Amino acid sequence: MIKNILSKRLNNVPRGAYYFLFFWLFSGCAFAGNPPPVAPYVLPGAPVFSHTIAQFREKFNLANPQTPLPEYRTIDTGDDGNTVILAASRIDETLYSSTALEPGSGKIKTIQMTWVSPENSTDKLSREQATGYMAALIHFFSPQLSLQESRLKLDSLLKNGKEKGRYIDADGALRYVVSYPGDREMTLAIEPVRLILRGS
């Protein structure tokens, strides 16, 4: 049922598709029958990356000309009390990037890539494109990793995500969240983590 709803939403560009992407944003990528936990970055005072979404997109596209990100569009949720601003970028009919931004500064609280295969197809080529974008995203936020090492990191994340459905990996100042409920859809999110210094 989730997949059917998502497929329909992805065809309603831009707003209809984007709203469903933010089900992941606010649920923390959880699909269980119980109410999903609130994602940490939705909470007031949650850490942010140093980039605004416009700065991130410019630098990402310069570094990754083969995997460019179209402009992110903000989403009007109709709720003035939101602790985040939502925005999304449609790469193609199977791949989207979405983000939650800090009101005022516009800095990134989470950045996500979501891939959904075409109806009645596993579409190997579109999946390979999606993993290419995801590896580039990891490399952008972890420049100490080579692109090949970033791909190996992604492979490990997706392997754990596929086994568990939802997987969280805290790695230094970053948190990776993977939702992988089946072979035809997956989401990778990267979020900043506030580090607590010893003695502070």
From TrEMBL:
Residues 1-32 form the signal peptide. It comes from the Bacteria. This is DUF1454 family protein. It comes from Tatumella terrea. InterPro entries: DUF1454. Keywords: Signal. PROSITE patterns: PROKAR_LIPOPROTEIN (PS51257). It holds the Pfam family DUF1454.
